[in-house]
Amino acid sequence: LIMNSRAIYWREHYRNVHQLSDKEGIAKSLEYSNERVRFQTLAHVLEGIGNPLGKHILDAGCGWGSMSLILHHCGARVSAIDNVRETIEELQKRYPFISWKPLNLMDVNELSYLPKYDRIVSVETLQYVDFESVIESLWSHLNRGGRLVASVPNSSCQIVRKVAQREGSNWAPI
Question: I want to staple 79 with a disulfide (CB 3.0 to 4.6 A). Which of 99, 102, 118, 133 is the partner?
Answer without folding.
Answer: 99
